[in-house]
Amino acid sequence: MSVRRALSLWGAAVLYPLIIVTYSVSLTTQLALWGYKLHRIFCANRPIVNHACGETLHTTVPPTGTVFTTVSVPLFTVLYSYVRILVVCKRSNSEVRRKAVQTCVPHLVTFVVYCCSVFVEMAISQFNRGQINPVVAAIISLEYLMVPSINNPLIYGLKLPQFVLQL
To answer: pLDDT tens digits, residue range 23-36?
Structure first.
């Protein structure tokens, strides 16, 4: 990979979240709120928008598209790159294949679990407070905070079984 391509990918990875967060927060700060109690474990932008008085269409439409792009673009990019790595390593000797699988599988598992947690959290944020039970929203918020955090040490601390490495 060239330096120019690496820098452009790095720039996209930094600029996209910066633009989305800045845009969403700037729209949210203009809203008048009718309540200050969030049925969540932590504060997020979408539940604040759900507490707004009046028209929130301009703050609803852009985040709906970002739910898809925030999760799917990085997920498919990472999956594609790891598949390419594993295809190249498949042509190599068994030691290279074993090391590639031993490195890639934990990364893929933790990243997919994280992406699923982010997707669930972002999808549940799209509901209004009357559409979902507050206990369910709190449990899902806990899942978003705890499952990836617990998953990382477990996955990286375990040795992969031999039958997985024989791929």
So the answer is: 877 877 777 777 66
Distances (CA, A) of 90 to 39, 74, 157: 49, 24, 25
Owning domain of residue 79: 3-165
Distance CA 75, CA 12 (A): 15
For residues 98 and 120, is the Cβ–Cβ distance under 8 A? no
- The DSSP 8-state label assigned to residue 41 in this structure reads S
Distance (Å, rounded) from C-alpha 136 to C-alpha 101? 37
* DSSP annotation string for 89-105: HHTS-HHHHHHHHHHHH
Long-range interactions of 112-118: CB distance < 8 A, separation 24+: 112/75, 113/147, 113/148, 113/151, 114/148, 114/151, 115/71, 115/74, 115/75, 117/143, 117/144, 117/147, 117/148, 118/70, 118/71, 118/144
**Cα-Cα-Cα-Cα dihedral of 118, 5, 89, 117, to 10°?**
0
The two structure tokens encoding residue 112: 């997919």
Q: How many domains does the chain have?
A: 1
Centroid of chain to Cα 118: 4
Q: What is the pTM of this model?
A: 0.67
The 3-state DSSP class for residue 143 equals helix
Query: In a 3-state reduction of DSSP, which class is residue 2?
Result: coil
